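re the bet — no i am not wrong, look at it urself. input seq straight from the record:
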Amino acid sequence: MEKFYHCGKIFEEIDKEILMTVCFFGNYIEAYPRIEVMRKGLMKNGVAVIECHTRKRGAAKYFDLYRKHRELKGRYDVMLVCMGGQTLVWFAKILCGKKIVFDAFASLYLTNVEDRKIAKAGSLRAMYYAFWDKFPCQSADVVLLDTGAQIQYFRAKYNLAREKFARVFVGADDQTFFPEKVLEKSGKFVVHWHGHIVPFHGLEIVIKAAEILQTKAPDITFEIITRFNSKYERIKSYTDIHKITNIKFIPEMDYKELAKAINRADITLGIFGNNGKAEVVIPNKIYESLACAKPVITARFGVLGELLTDEKNVILSNPADSEDLAKKILWCKDHPAETASIAQAGFETYREHLTPEILGQELKRILF
């Protein structure tokens, strides 16, 4: 038996002779859902995981990864450059000399130029984001993305070959997100939303739907879990000025507490913005709600057809349409049996396609 290490600590004890080994490489957030699902999924499928990881920035990250990799060289079969590692793929290729798989996960250009408007199209900064979308994809042997729609986006924008890409859904960790009965209910019909306040999430649409329902259905309450920052302050100011009192804002929390919050809700909400990013991604929150067997309402985009069908295992509303969202919330409240059936079908979709073990099996096939 040999002990494999994670950031200098014993991570997992395995039999090296009978297992394949992958090296997670990069400056990723270790507890991020995508990383957790991949790590646990591979290990459930007999793949040993070792990690060459840093949280250093700038040039320091290269020196730190080089130093840590010297201790791991020759101890793995394939390297996975994890999400957030766009600027590290070329470096991994020099260090490794083996198959490089890159989890691109999300387009820098789409996120920062088209969604968050951090840079204007055609600007030097936008060109920088486009370069770091394309170059690592060209350098890697295989590129992972979380939806077929994102693969199509990368192919069309950067003229990349289809055989370069593989789809691995995000999924959710079934040790954290699972159905759990909540004994203490508030007596209200609870609508749950969590996430960062960015355009494609469309929180302003949720706020306006709450405003519509405040008089129509006073027994409905909204729980909004998000980071309390300047964006939150602007949203909170709007609710105060317009006297929207059926919303409870809750600061972001760890994933176990988040799972409890999802489980105490009657329905959960996905994304409602209407832009290019919303058209190609399925966000974490949808997977997490499916894993908890909760009914999900989210905006209608073609990418959802890769997994979900309206009124079968999800409820779809028109993008950027608070009136339609309010109607769908009322429908769920007034049709509990149908809503419960949709939630159960969503949970079955999760169990059949989106658990760490199932996604780990797919990832293992791609890696090896």
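see?? The CA atoms of residues 105 and 145 lie 5 Å apart. told u. also The longest helix spans residues 336-353. so pay up
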